[in-house]
């Protein structure tokens, strides 16, 4: 298991990893789609469109230059968050984006000596979230996961990454 883990953690970030992160993030909480409006809504300023979760995560990865190790730590935090969020919880249109960013932000800060600041993360969201929202996300994530639960062991990585490790183990 450890040998497969080391092989995996040295791989570059792939589209498959991003798709897996999208699926994991989306599984944490359901999103209540709004009813269509009865009449067209006009606004003096056009609202910013919410990007797909895949596009959002891909953009964060590109701009923050995170490595596979940080992304997989993020995956551990997503799994831990899923354990504490009530199963009947329903989110708004940006809930999945916020959940992922919160987990990614904590993972980057926990695994790297030098990581992007919250101001940088705000920029990487391309206007979807404000600095105040990013700061609040960080605090909320720590409250949900628990400060002591940011730490993890190799066994946590092996469990969270089993989807990726099984094919590697078959080749070893």
From TrEMBL:
Output a single Gene Ontology CC term carried by this record. Answer: nucleus
Cyclin N-terminal domain boundaries? 19-147
> Can you tell me where the transmembrane regions are?
none
Q: Which InterPro entries match?
A: Cyclin-like_sf, Cyclin_N, Cyclin_PHO80-like
Pfam families this protein is in? Answer: Cyclin_N
Q: Which GO terms describe its molecular function?
A: cyclin-dependent protein serine/threonine kinase regulator activity; protein kinase binding
**What's the domain of life for this entry?**
Eukaryota
Can you say what this protein is called?
A: Cyclin N-terminal domain-containing protein
What organism does the record attribute this protein to? Pichia membranifaciens NRRL Y-2026
**The organism's taxonomic lineage, starting at the top:** Eukaryota, Fungi, Dikarya, Ascomycota, Saccharomycotina
């Amino acid at each position: 298991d450890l040998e497969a883990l080391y092989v995996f953690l040295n791989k570059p970030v792939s589209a498959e990893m991003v798709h897996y992160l999208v699926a994991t993030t989306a599984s944490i909480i359901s999103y209540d789609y709004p009813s269509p409006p009865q009449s067209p809504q006009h606004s003096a300023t056009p609202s910013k469109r919410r990007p797909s979760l895949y596009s959002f995560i891909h953009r964060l990865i590109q701009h923050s230059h995170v490595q596979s190790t940080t992304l997989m730590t993020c995956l551990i935090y997503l799994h831990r968050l899923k354990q504490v969020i009530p199963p009947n919880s329903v989110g708004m249109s940006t809930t999945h984006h916020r959940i992922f960013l919160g987990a990614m932000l904590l993972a980057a800060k926990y695994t790297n000596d030098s990581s992007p600041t919250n101001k940088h993360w705000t920029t990487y969201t391309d206007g979807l979230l404000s600095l105040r929202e990013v700061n609040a996300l960080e605090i909320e994530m720590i409250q949900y996961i628990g400060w002591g639960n940011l730490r993890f062991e190799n066994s946590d990585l092996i469990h969270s990454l089993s989807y990726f490790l099984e094919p590697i183990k078959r080749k070893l």
